């Protein structure tokens, strides 16, 4: 089994706003569908809440923080799921059922196993 | 050992090695490990077999040797990470010597094609990986076939193998419902493999029989797997109707012959009949939207049905190209159509059509076709210049020799 991150790119939305209830229900439905292989995930506050930190001159250098996300694009990182699946096909089949895949994009990437007891 | 028997031995080891590779990918679950193990086994086979003779079951010998080698590597790695038991169980569970019947090897090869053509890999990578793994082309040959620098190709192949391993791209033939969607990439791969065998981009031979055999075999497998898919039917029909002409492609001195110069008595009638039957089936199954392979098979059929070059039905061929353009408007098809048009309406009409072909400036085929038509129109000096442009581009040895011969003819005609 491989752990996959299904990284969700969509238009910037405020998931905490009431008017999102309809789409939230779709996400709840997905979580039920994927329950058996769902290992984690989170929705993120909109990019307006983002602060980007960068250290100039390498480790120990000056800390520069900027208001806003890393890049200004129409589709931004709005959340992710962690799915444990047998192979990529299984992960892709699930990712296609994430609501953002219908009007945004979902990038699927394997997660590097680290710090697990062998 | 004579040079001939040695060449036969090398061919046998390469051919069997490719099949063993497919099995090893399944039993080890790792592309890189399988490749290393098979390469190692092939080297040992060359040493041992040239000394002691070829064993009764060469494939079994290679499989066993490659498996031992893979197991050694796994054990060594496992010893470092303390996962010895895990590694050994993995190999043991994934089958032993009973993996050898032809059907298993056949299935392994199909799995390997579908793995190479997984939609998670870019189309160029799919083809590169398939040519490298299924057709047994070297990285350098693959790079040449796809017109990419060798280093770029090497990197692309390494990345693809890493992605297959890390993203756990499955090694299997997809379920029936997904087959049609995957067929496009798989078909293109088999077609390109055949193409590379039919008109090698480099090397010293007019055709490469190993590639042609492998492509035809894979096309047969696909048709068996999906008998109702016009693409699979059309692809097999096309390859058989072309392959029927294989023996006539080169003259006694090994130089390439044009279609009109070929000895039609050498054409394989059994393959023609089989291809024609498949073409009929393919045409019946595609009434609304033509399938590009079925249409190309129809064009190939027009050629093999003509008892002599003058009897070729160029009007039918031109209309088939017009049909093909409606589903596959690519420069190569436009080039072929211009050449057919020249046969139907004369060289000037062909030249005019060639003016509209864009995107093939870096291929010898375009300039050679232009040169030929210029010569037929009586523009000798322009023909010589066009041959020079063709000769400046990559070509196989026999192809280049042929072009030089034609250039000399054009030179003589313009004096």
What are the defining features of this structure?
heterodimer; A: 118 residues; alpha+beta; Alpha-Beta Plaits; four-stranded antiparallel beta sheet; two-stranded antiparallel sheet; 6 strands; 38% strand; globular; B: 415 residues; mainly alpha; 71% helix; YCII (chain A); Transcription initiation protein (chain A); Dimeric_a/b-barrel (chain A)
Can you describe what's shown?
The complex is a heterodimer of chains A (118) and B (415). Chain A has 118 residues and is of the alpha+beta class. Chain A has a single domain (2-110), classed as Alpha-Beta Plaits, CATH 3.30.70. Chain A has helices spanning 21-33, 88-95, 100-103, and strands spanning 2-11, 38-43, 51-56, 62-67, 75-85, 105-110. Chain A has a four-stranded antiparallel sheet with strand order 2-5-1-6. A two-stranded antiparallel ribbon of chain A has the order 3-4. By secondary structure, chain B is mainly alpha-helical. Helix content of chain B is 71%, strand content 0%. In chain B, helix 1 packs across helix 3, helix 13 (292-305) packs antiparallel against helix 14 (314-327) and helix 16 (347-354) packs antiparallel against helix 17 (364-376). Chain B is globular. The termini of chain B are far apart. The mean pLDDT of chain B is 87.
């Amino acid at each position: 089994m491989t752990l996959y991150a299904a990284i969700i790119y969509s238009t910037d939305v405020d998931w905490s706003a009431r008017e999102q209830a309809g789409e939230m229900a779709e996400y709840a439905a997905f979580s039920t569908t994927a329950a058996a292989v769902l290992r984690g995930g989170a929705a993120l506050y909109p990019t307006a809440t983002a602060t980007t930190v960068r250290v100039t001159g390498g480790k120990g250098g000056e800390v520069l923080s900027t208001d806003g996300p890393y890049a200004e694009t129409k589709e931004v990182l709005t959340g992710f799921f962690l799915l444990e699946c047998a192979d990529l096909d299984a992960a892709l089949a699930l990712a296609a059922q994430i609501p953002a895949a219908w009007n945004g994009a979902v990038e699927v990437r394997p997660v590097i196993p680290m710090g697990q007891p062998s | 050992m004579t040079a001939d028997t040695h060449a036969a031995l090398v061919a046998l080891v390469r051919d069997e090695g490719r099949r063993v590779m497919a099995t090893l990918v399944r039993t080890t679950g790792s592309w890189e490990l399988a490749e290393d193990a098979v390469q190692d086994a092939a080297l040992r086979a060359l040493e041992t077999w040239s000394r002691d003779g070829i064993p009764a079951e060469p494939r079994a010998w290679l499989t066993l040797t490659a498996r031992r080698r893979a197991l050694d590597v796994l054990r060594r790695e496992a010893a470092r990470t303390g996962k010895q038991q895990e590694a050994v169980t993995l190999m043991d569970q994934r089958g032993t010597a009973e993996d050898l019947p032809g059907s298993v090897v056949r299935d392994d090869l199909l799995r390997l094609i579908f793995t190479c053509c997984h939609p998670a890999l870019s189309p160029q990578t799919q083809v590169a990986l398939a040519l490298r793994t299924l057709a047994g082309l070297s990285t350098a040959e693959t790079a040449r076939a796809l017109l990419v620098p060798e280093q770029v190709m090497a990197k692309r192949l390494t990345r693809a193998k890493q992605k297959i391993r890390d993203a756990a791209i499955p090694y299997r033939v997809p379920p029936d419902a997904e087959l049609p969607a995957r067929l496009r990439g798989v078909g293109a791969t088999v077609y390109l493999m055949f193409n590379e065998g039919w008109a090698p981009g480099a090397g010293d031979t007019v055709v490469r029989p190993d590639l042609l055999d492998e492509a035809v075999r894979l096309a047969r497998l696909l048709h068996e797997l999906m008998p109702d898919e016009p693409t699979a039917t059309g692809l097999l029909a096309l390859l058989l109707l072309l392959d029927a002409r294989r023996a006539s492609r080169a003259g006694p001195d090994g130089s390439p012959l044009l279609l009109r110069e070929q000895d039609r008595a050498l054409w394989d009638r059994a393959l023609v009949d089989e291809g024609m039957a498949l073409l009929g089936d393919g045409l019946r199954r595609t009434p609304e939207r033509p399938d590009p392979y079925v249409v190309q098979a129809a064009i190939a059929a027009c050629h093999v049905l003509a008892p002599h070059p003058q009897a070729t039905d160029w009007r039918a061929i031109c209309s088939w190209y017009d049909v093909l353009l409606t589903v596959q408007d690519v420069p190569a098809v436009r080039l072929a159509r211009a050449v057919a048009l020249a046969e139907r309406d004369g060289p000037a009409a062909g030249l005019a059509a060639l003016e509209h072909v864009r995107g093939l400036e870096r291929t010898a085929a375009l300039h050679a076709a232009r040169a030929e038509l210029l010569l037929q129109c009586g523009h000798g000096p322009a023909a010589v210049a066009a041959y020079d442009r063709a000769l400046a581009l990559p070509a196989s040895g026999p192809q280049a020799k042929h072009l030089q011969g034609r250039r000399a003819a054009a030179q003589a005609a313009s004096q």
